[in-house]
Amino acid sequence: MEAQVKWVEEFKFLGQSNSGHSVVMDGNGGATAPSPMEMVMMAAGGCSSVDVVAGLKDAEQTVYSCNAKVTSERRETAPRLFTTMNIHFDIAGDNLDEAIIEQVTAASLQKYCSVCLMLGEGVTMTHSWSIVQA
């Protein structure tokens, strides 16, 4: 796996993945694009969401939507590392089994999500979930 990050101007950077996709990042607190730290949060939410949807489908649950809201806290001083992060999943579907939802959301953070597992080495990672109407 490989990626490149090119400086564009001021504190704006262009990230380019080996798979041919690009994303703009803004190191100026996210003034014009997501900041690199916001990208880490989105990566954790995206990676974990893949696990949750796949796990629910594997358990033959009928899922209509899965929205992840990622919240975090960071140190006050540099380096401003994440100290805590929570991923809350709002899941909609037919006759969803709460025990299965708990199992797949927990398994994502504890076993499968590469991003969460890397962050979990230094960040207190938690999850929560709710069933919502589609």
UniProtKB/TrEMBL annotation:
Q: What is this protein called?
A: OsmC-like protein
Q: Which organism's genome codes for this protein?
A: Vibrio palustris
